[in-house]
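Morning run. Coffee first, then this:
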Amino acid sequence: MTVSPASHAALAWLALSAVLVAVPRLQAQTPAPAGLKIDKEKKTVTVDCRIAPRKLPNLSEVYPIEVIAAWPAPKGQKAHETVVTTEVKPSDLHQALVSLGLKPGKPAKGEGAAAAGPEVKLFLDLPGPGGIAKRLPIERALVDKKTGKTMPALKWIFTGSVEKQPDPAKPEKIYAADATGTFIAIFPVTDECVLQSSLTMKDEPLIKLDTNVKTLPEAGVAAQLVVVVP
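And here it is:
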């Protein structure tokens, strides 16, 4: 049977249409993880979170703030010293930042170490009147415990987490922050996180932080942590 040129064109168009239809279907199969939103136009990653409690029932004291975001207790190792808690995986935040064109640097830990990597901006979106979110720089959520003064602007760095080998008998390694549930460290007390500030361990004894009750709602209120790529 002879196929006319018009039929050839129609078949080619049908084949191309099938490819074009398949692309959005493929993309739909890999949505952003629950609780995380990537906006490539605005170059932001938004993480659903909640204001963290400052005292946990199993601890006798309130510890200074040393991280910005962590998993809630009991699985979050830094849940007793964080501003917000979230259920998102740290490695998902890492991958989201990579999707916006960032390349992770190197996390710092201990004396003499300094975080390296591309800089980002951190904000907290809080519920406001009429359902309109109120955005504040993350530093405004922190105050010095001694003076009550708001934390000055800090430099936030996409370091990425170190990897670790959970089982010495097996070669498999994991993204270490996915084991501790730590997202953002203020001081280099851990290298198992996604972001760190530029502060060093020399600053840690001098700066004891608490949450700013003048700007933050009560514990448990839903909020959004926003990472902005400059």
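Confidence is low (pLDDT under 50) at residues 5-29. Good start to the day.
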